[in-house]
Amino acid sequence: xxxxxxxxxxxxxxxxxxxxxxxxxxxxxxxxxxxxxxxxxxxxxxxxxxxxxx
Length: 54
Prior knowledge:
- There is one protein chain.
- The protein is an all-alpha fold and 54 residues long.
- It is 83% helix and 0% strand.
- It has helices at 3-19, 23-30, 34-53.
- The mean pLDDT is 85.
């Protein structure tokens, strides 16, 4: 994931956190694929854990 993509997702997740909406409703309103949203939300944490265990 490029730095600009990370920043874009960080902005999306901040907006989501303050929206008060469920992930399903937020993604529906914003036109974001729900699975991509979930994968992007957890990918940074998972990729860090994998690199430490390798």
